[in-house]
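Model it.
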Amino acid sequence: MFIENLKKIKQWLFYAVFCALLILILMKIDIFIAIFVKISGLLTPLLFGLGFAFVINLFSSHVENFLKKHLPKTKRMMKACRPIAIFITILIAIIIFYFLTIAIFPQLIQSIQMFAKQLPSYLKSIQDLLNQFFDTLKLNYVVNFTQSESWNTVLPQITNYLTKVLPDLYKNAMSISMVFLNVFMGFMICFYFLIDKEKFILQAKKIVAAIFPVKVSNKILEISQKSNHTFSMYIRGQLIECLLEGIIFVIVLSLLRFPYALLIGSMVCVLSIIPVLGATFVCIFGFLLILAINPLQAVLFVIVYQVIQQLESSLLYPRVVGNSVGLPGVLVLTSVFLCGGLFGIIGVLLGVPLTAVVYTLFREFIYFLLNRRNVEVVGNEVVEKNS
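Modeled.
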């Protein structure tokens, strides 16, 4: 009897301490947010390293298995397979990034120069079109983009803006330097983590088992495994799909004699990793680029672009990314905008797989409730299952 009462006292004491801590956090929420931001800033290299390790491991593990199959089965060689696989994966990623940079930036500068040369003629065409439209509506209004008064008001605004921005250049330079430092430290942490990944994963499992009860620990490990599978399928498939999609765009646009085929294909390869928004941006950007050369061809480009996108989303995406990550279209769009608004570019990139994990767990929970109540939905009716 005394032991049971002692257990109840401990349980209620735990609840009381938990409620007291929760009230304290809510009363001093601004202090805790500041502490969290400070700690997350200090842990930025670690977060970079874990992110790099997760992505690199998706490909280096395959390279490692290949090396272990084809290299001599000596102990020293087997131990060296993992560092070699990590190095090869990082080297291939750097080479791809280098060639994409070579493909994008020279043509991008050239297109901006051409657009700047064509800008006066564009302004003249738009001006004539607007004036003709106002004449049709019998409006006494004339548009003139070449008036000196317009430039006299624009130039002081540009000068004022630059005056305000220049003092912040040093601060921005320091921020950029910190980003590069965090990325470099992240790569170092990534390398050390991948070398002993089994050891770190086992330690994490032991921590979970030491803190939580057996059933809760198993459920946490099950959710972690499903999350790892979903994120792995999404990121690996998305990267491969982006590469294939970029190659397809380069080939199709080159065969159809569109200008800037290599530039647009390279941008598709880079920006398609961002769901919905990336493809939309490339379409608009490609339209503006081709518009500077041939307006009719720019309209045809939009049509061709949408046709390729539809074929890709119907044929290529399900095969490469996998149906296990698939979400209804409305949830994909919602997750991109919602997670992007909350967490910025990281939210845009990880919103879809994160939503897929939540969607999968919620679906399993609904099926669990249906099975427990022994009911199912047939058409427009809810009926009991046959025993």
